[in-house]
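Late entry, written up from scratch paper. The run itself happened at the end of the previous shift, but nothing got recorded in the book at the time, so transcribing now.
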Amino acid sequence: MSWGTELWDQYDTIATHTQKGIDFCERFTHFLKDRCSIELKYASELKKLVKSYQPKKKEEEEYQQYSWAARFWDVLKELHDLAGQHEVIAENTQGQVLKDVQSLISEMKQQRRKDLQDGAKVQDQLKESLAKLDKSRRNYEKAFKMAEKATDDYRKADADINLSRAEVEKTRNMMMIKNNQCDESKNEYAAQLQQTNQHQRDHYTQQMPSVFQQMQSMEENRINKIKSMVKQIADIERSVVPIINTCIDGMVKASDGISAEEDSKAVIDKYKSGFPIPADIPFEDLSNSSVIDTSNANGTPKNSLDNRKGTVSDKKKNRKDKKGGGGLFGIFTSSKIIGLLGEESKEDFSDLPPNQQRKALNRKIDEFKKEIARETAEREGMLKMKDVYVNNPALGDPNALEKKIEENAQKIDSLQAEMRKYQGYLANMDAKPSPVGQRRNSLSDDSISQSSTNMEMSQTSLPGQPPVAANEPEVYTDEWPEPPSDEEFEEEGTVEIRKKPDKKAIDDEEDHVGEFEHAEGDFDEEGFPVIGTCRALYIYEAGNEGSVAMTEGEEMFVLEQDQGDGWTRVRKHDNSEGFVPTSYIQCHFYDQDEV
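Output as recorded:
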C-alpha cells in the first residue's frame, strides 16, 4: 500500500508522523545511554564489592589453608569475571547500536527536510496555478457583466426615438467592444482552467505521490533499523551468556570444593602445638616439702597457661584481634600471631610450639632452596653467555660479566650459609626433648631432680655450654636453649653435614664435647675415589677448617659431589684435600664420558 494513493490528502499529518519517528529514535538513544550507564555502574559496583572482600597480599597464603576461604576467593574471582561481561555489554552497545542510532537520526533529519521541501514546492506550484485560474475567472466575470450592460444600453438607445442616429451607433459600437472583451476573457479563463486541471491531476497523481513515497520509504527504513538494533542488543547479551554461565558454573564448582573434613585437618596442622597433655596434678604434701617454687606452684608449663589466656580469657588480646584482624570478615589474624603468640617470632622460631616451629623452619629452608635454585640457574645462564662471548667477542665483552658472576656467587654462598643456619636450628630442635616433658610438681620431691635425662640431652647437644652438675637442683623452665651463632654454625654445622664423626656412643656430657672436637678433625680417615676433574673459576681463600684454598684456573680432582649444601670435596695436585664452594668451580665427571 502506498501513502501517495491512500493518504493523498494527509500531507500535514504525514509530516507530523515522520517527526514523531525521529523523536522516538532520539528517545531510544537516551534509553541506550542510560542502559550502558547502568551496566557500567553495576559492573563497577560488583568489582568494588569483590575488591572489598578479596584477601590482601599478606593474607593470600592464609586463604589457601582452608577450602571454604579458598573457594570463596574463587567465587570472588568468578564474580569479577561476571562483572567484566556487563562491561562488555555496555561497550558493545555503545560502540555498535548507539552509534548506528545516532547515524540513523542524522540521515532521517536530512531526508525528511528534503522531502518536505519537495512537497512544499509542489504545493506552491498547485496554489499558483489555482490563483491564476481564479484571476482569469474574475476577469471573465467582469467582462461578461460589462458586455451585458453595453447590450442593455444599446437596446434602450435603439428604442428611444429621441436619440440621434449617431448616438445610437455609438452605443452599438460600445456593445460590440464589450462583447469582444468578454469573449477574450472567456477564452483565457477556459485555457487557464484546462491548464489548472491538468496541473492538479499531475499534482495528485504524480508529484505528491512521489513525495509521499520518499517519506514512506524513510519511515519504513527507520522501523527496519530499529528492528535490527533491538535484535542486535539481544545478540550482544546472548554472546556473553555462555561466559556468564561459565562463571556461574565456576561458583558451583567452588562450592563443591568446600570440604569440612579437610578444613578440620588444616586447623589441626596449623594450630597443633606438639605439647603432650598435662599429667594428673599430684597431691601436695606440705609437711614433706623441702623446696617450694612459688613461681610455678601447680607445675604447669607457662605455655599452657598462655594457651588458656590466648583462647578464652585474654580480653585485651581479643580486642587487639578485633582491631587488627584482616581477611574475610576479619577472621584471619596476622601470620606472625599464631595460637600462643602475641608478638613477632624469633629468628629460629623458638618461641613457637614444637610442631609450629618445625613447620616454620621447613618452610624457611624451602624458601632458601628455591632462591638458591633460581640464582644457580641465573649463574649457569651467565656462564653460558660468557662462553659465547669468549668464542665470539663480536657479541659482547666476556669481562663485563665477571662482576655479575662474582656477585651471583657471593649471593649463592650467602643463601647457602643462611640455609645451613636454619638447617642447624632444625637439627637442634630434633635433638632436644619436648619443651613440656613430664609434669613436675614444684612442691613435691620429684620437682627437685638430679638433672633428668631429657635436660642432659638438651644441654649436651650444643658444644661449649657448661654441663649441669649432678647434684645441683633443677627447676623446670619453658625456655629453649639458644641456637649457635652464625660463626659457630658455619664451622660446626658444616662438619655435622659433611664430616664423618666418630660413631662411639656418648656416655656422658663431658666426653660429648671432646667427641665433637675429635669429629672436626676427622676428614681423611676414609679414602675417596676420584670421580672427575674441576677447574677453579675464582680465587678462594679457605676460611673454615676442612676447606682448601684455590687460585683461579687451578685444576683439581673431584672426590665427592655437592650433596645440596653448596660444597664439593676436591683433591689438589699436592694431595691436600678439602671442600671448596661448588659455585666457584666448573666440574667434569667421568661418568658423563661413559654415557
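Residues 67-159 form the longest helix (93 residues).
(Scratch paper discarded after transcription.)
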